[in-house]
Amino acid sequence: MSTIEEARSFLENYDGPDFRIMEVCGTHTHEIFRQGIRRILSPKINLISGPGCPVCVTPVSFIDEAVFLALEKGCTITTFGDLVRVPGSKMSLAGARAKGAKIKVVYAPFDAVKIAQENPEEQVVFLSVGFETTTPSDVIAVKKAMTAGLKNFSILTANKTMPGAYEAMGKSCDAFLYPGHVHAITGTQICKDMCDKGVSGVIAGFTGSELLTALAVAVRKFGEGKPFFVNCYPRVVKDEGSPAAVAMVDRFMEPCDAEWRGIGTIPMSGMQLRDEYAEFDARKKYSVPDLKPEYKTACRCGDVLQGKITPNQCPLFGKACNPDHPVGACMVSDEGACSAFYMYGGDL
């Protein structure tokens, strides 16, 4: 599309086959709402949410493990704020804090390392949650702790990688709106491989103009009737990605099977510390048991994350579940689809 005005006009007036595009990234979901993009789309274009919010896909068992470390092992848990209210099978971290656990909110993993340095009498655990974008900073934190000789710092990993999710969700939509920040790290080969398998998508940036352009390109390419991939964020995403960041992660971590909340286990879609760094692996350091909790709820976060329903189709949405009293992780997180629908008003 040569101009934003042309892209907007095309999206408003599109009258071709119905087109379902999945926003893999929670930031995309919120920005599309904030920019009012949903208001201008043709009824033939359907935006659906996917599993791109790291807090939302963090499983119940991970929260239970963190609560176990806090209450049973007496560890100081350091975490990003979103995770504090995510429900576990019995309680959230906020509930554990009410029982006397030490739960500290940090803004970067390096803050957790600093807490460990300043409090040598405390065993500090950082909750390592995120995708390819944030995992490099997690392993750098481990490297800093190792260099400083810290014996009271470890991480509890729930790091995930996107290719497995793309594979699992490939039949849920006609195309992906790929997250630009993830592919700034991984590069574009993953998307090209998905295209070879018949799964279409475009990499998008985060401004209103970048999102409009990416959506217009996706809709137009869809009309050609064959799988496609286009990098619509070339000023940031290069074919090679960030080899240095990838190499850093590969040095410290290795792939493993991972559970995704509401979706299930996706083979080799997680990242865990390699055996040589076991002293910084909280699961191994504290012999965390294999927690497989029974968790029954009317919350339909899993269906939202798979694009099967919109948040306002969940019976709890806006009633029993709201930002002040969240039942599901998708309402807790600032990147969650339910949070976006509640904040910006349903299907607008």
Q: Give the H and E element order.
A: HEHHEHHEHEHEHEHEHHEHEHEEHHHH
What is the domain tally? Answer: 3
Instruction: Work out the radius of gyration.
Output: 20 Å
How large is the share of residues in beta strands?
15-25%
Describe the SSE topology.
Layout: H1 4-13, E1 19-23, H2 26-34, H3 37-40, E2 45-49, H4 54-57, H5 60-71, E3 76-79, H6 93-98, E4 102-105, H7 109-118, E5 124-130, H8 135-147, E6 153-160, H9 162-169, E7 175-179, H10 180-186, H11 189-196, E8 201-204, H12 208-222, E9 229-231, H13 243-252, E10 253-260, E11 264-273, H14 282-285, H15 301-305, H16 329-332, H17 337-344
Parallel strand pairs: 1-2, 1-7, 3-4, 3-5, 5-6, 7-8, 8-9
Antiparallel strand pairs: 6-11, 10-11
Report on this structure.
- The chain is α/β, with parallel strands linked by helices.
- Helices cover 39% and strands 18% of the residues.
- The protein folds into 3 domains: 4-52 and 169-231, HypD, alpha/beta domain 1 (Rossmann fold, 3-Layer(aba) Sandwich), CATH 3.40.50; 55-162 and 241-285, HypD, alpha/beta domain 2 (Rossmann fold), CATH 3.40.50; 301-344, no CATH class.
- The strands form 2 sheets. Strands 4-3-5-6-11-10 form a 6-stranded mixed beta sheet, with helices on both faces. It has a 5-stranded parallel beta sheet with strand order 2-1-7-8-9, with helices on both faces.
- Helix 1 crosses helix 12 (208-222) and helix 8 (135-147) packs across helix 13.
- The longest helix has 15 residues, at 208-222.
- The model has no long low-confidence stretch (mean pLDDT 94).
